[in-house]
């Protein structure tokens, strides 16, 4: 009897212990059935200052490890431009890296998962074998033909990013580029805010379609095949004086709000989860220091409830020179309303500085709590607490044939036909597929890196055909013409070569080298040599179509008379066969300029609606052709 009693009480004690453990282990913030605000409140009530500041800290993968994330309680990791786990890394390698970082986060006291961010700007462009879509300047030319195209591109990009275990892209760029001398103009859809507003539909592709009854300003994510998006760069980045990157935008408040703000309204309505601040200034005040526009307008007036993130070393650049007074920069940037800081390297300095400022009452806890509340809201909305680890289920989406076909379709629709024949009644395009012999020339005809442009594999981009997988324009031409047509490729032929070649016609593909950001700033916008020489040598001797591969309009007025046809192909990406599809008439030209094509740089800045508007090709211009066969 005594033995039975002891056994009974032993079992009872064990049961009570299990019940106590179950009660102790239950945490509202880990319960997906609880409302998000309840989960946030519960989690924040448990967090120390150290844990809160850790959530506000984003570091580059080159200084990250599971141990570092665990020790400093960090909230986010990113890949800066070209920062990859290994050259030509597979999707599985990326996943293993991200999951390794996640282990460090989940083994902290509270187990708050990290968000991993990357610049997936025109496809998952940092990753080998990803589908590279046309840059935004080209997509702006498609708005009249297929307004849903960017949404489909966003959805495909989301799948390819998920294929590598990444949750978050620093895209889209919704800058309104008002001066093509800016080195980031190709990241802008248009000089016209209405087109940029329409292109925010890409957010619905990246994040999913927000339900119609959703509260305005609340972040949204539509499932584990979607990724968190980021509208950037707030505000006025495309309006700087002379197009100088990170410079000063001199404009009235009315002008700023009427030109540069509207697309942010659309992005917020679509549930964009994060907003990145611009390096640039507005009338002399750095945007990273602008409390009135970040907190007063974006957070309070527009009621944006996602988080605000700095740009790369954005706090450092509040002072000139950068990092001259880091304590001041941290105080100013956090006070302005920045929630997550892209450090990206010296994270201990940031953590120590912000901790000091809070402990000395320079930064109130209410400001820290606002930042952390927003970060947690985005993480909970993204389902990171329920699905912190990536698996290999999406790896086959990377560079899939379906996505490459979509990119090829996008290329076709971005092409803008600027000239077709030396007279209206003698069009050159579409070209006949069957010809005795044709010449393909130019620096960009057989160069995948050139046709993809900047922000491809590396930050600045790379010329050449060994950096990723795709189809050059030359290869596209060879696959499109009749098997009996002889295709001769000579990158830089002499006039004698052209004259003696007895070519039926020539295709000249020239343009700008890859670049990004400040490295692309140009005060002259000239077409670099040998491009002009190739145009002159070829088009002076045979009927020719010139295909321009550029991130913006460039100076071409003096060369247009010698050309028989001229096509703006922008930066088409990996699927160069889309160019051949239209040149040879399988599809018609449909693109319309989303930018004014100037005559000389002395006219700049010149935008549609300006009083003195005298372009070479006006905004909205684009000749059309009919397909030569039924589709």
UniProtKB/TrEMBL annotation:
It holds the Pfam family Glyco_hydro_3_C. Residues 1-22 form the signal peptide. Residues 415-624 form the Glycoside hydrolase family 3 C-terminal domain. GO terms for molecular function: beta-glucosidase activity. Residues 48-378 form the Glycoside hydrolase family 3 N-terminal domain. Keywords: Glycosidase, Hydrolase, Signal. InterPro entries: Cellulose_Degrad_GH3 (IPR051915), GH (IPR017853), Glyco_hydro_3_C (IPR002772), Glyco_hydro_3_C_sf (IPR036881), Glyco_hydro_3_N (IPR001764), Glyco_hydro_3_N_sf (IPR036962). GO terms for biological process: glucan catabolic process. PANTHER family: BETA-GLUCOSIDASE, PERIPLASMIC BETA-GLUCOSIDASE-RELATED. This is Beta-glucosidase. It comes from Rhododendron simsii (Sims's rhododendron).
